[in-house]
């Protein structure tokens, strides 16, 4: 399943369509980047869809995360603009869309004409030409409190953007600034950013191993994409400054990314 399908973000190969499942209006994301069809777990429980137990299998998200799927719903009727289609759906904790229709549904339609720019999708169903329209989603829309709470409870991320004008005030005169520069220059070895590894100690620590004991093989822990990017950035900075160096040791140390109060991240 793609990241667009998990988060409900519009992509170059996705289309959001309004539809009805039973008596509830839903948002269907048509995504040819997802292999199967999925429905939000909470929505499937509210609709009380007939459940079919399946052999549990893993669904891999584009960011590397793996989700467990244990339920499916056979031939669920989905109504678009007077046209009803049926699709087999699998339950997943989706955040944005209610239903995702992937390649599993698209390949059963035969020849499909899709215009992502205008949001129009055309195909033949039982000898009849069917046209689905995504409608106009351009521009910003005001969101109510209940909608925000629903997205938040579903695991969505909410960001607040505030623009402020910040003016720098220099309260020190030229003489004070000069004194500060002289002080920093005099103790540069103490106050400057450390570069390179610390000096060798008289005795280096050693980890004794049992004879012929091999290192334990453990798969690395998967971080979210934005955390992975931050870890790689900080590691690259420490490599460049010489604080760390490449190691060929079969042993590794766990990395923990902790968020500080100012919003930055600390690598532990």
Automatic annotation (TrEMBL):
The record ties this protein, via CDD domains, to:
retropepsin_like
Give a Pfam family name.
RVP_2
The UniProt entry, under PANTHER family, shows: LDOC1 RELATED, TRANSPOSON TY3-I GAG POLYPROTEIN
The name of this protein is: Uncharacterized protein
Q: Which organism is it from?
A: Striga hermonthica
């Amino acid at each position: 399943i793609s990241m667009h399908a998990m988060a409900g973000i519009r992509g170059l190969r996705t289309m959001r369509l309004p539809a009805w499942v039973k008596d509830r209006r839903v948002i269907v994301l048509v995504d040819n980047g997802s292999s199967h069809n999925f429905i939000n777990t909470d929505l499937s429980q509210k609709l009380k869809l007939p459940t079919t137990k399946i052999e549990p299998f893993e669904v891999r998200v584009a960011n590397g995360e793996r989700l467990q799927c244990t339920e499916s719903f056979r031939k669920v009727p989905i109504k678009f603009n007077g046209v009803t289609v049926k699709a087999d759906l699998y339950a997943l904790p989706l955040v944005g869309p209610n239903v995702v229709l992937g390649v599993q549904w698209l390949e059963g339609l035969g020849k499909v004409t899709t215009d992502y720019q205008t949001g129009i999708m055309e195909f033949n169903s039982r000898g009849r030409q069917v046209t689905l329209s995504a409608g106009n989603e351009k521009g910003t829309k005001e969101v109510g409190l209940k909608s925000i709470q629903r997205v938040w409870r579903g695991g969505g991320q909410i960001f607040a953007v505030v623009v402020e004008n910040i003016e720098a005030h220099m309260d020190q005169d030229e003489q004070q600034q000069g004194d500060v520069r002289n002080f920093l220059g005099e103790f540069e070895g103490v106050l400057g950013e450390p570069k390179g590894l610390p000096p060798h100690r008289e005795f280096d620590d050693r980890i004794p191993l049992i004879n012929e004991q091999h290192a334990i093989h453990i798969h690395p822990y998967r971080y979210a994409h934005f955390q992975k990017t931050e870890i790689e950035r900080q590691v690259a900075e420490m490599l460049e400054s010489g604080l760390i160096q490449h190691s060929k040791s079969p042993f590794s140390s766990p990395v923990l990314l902790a968020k500080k109060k100012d919003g930055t991240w600390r690598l532990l």
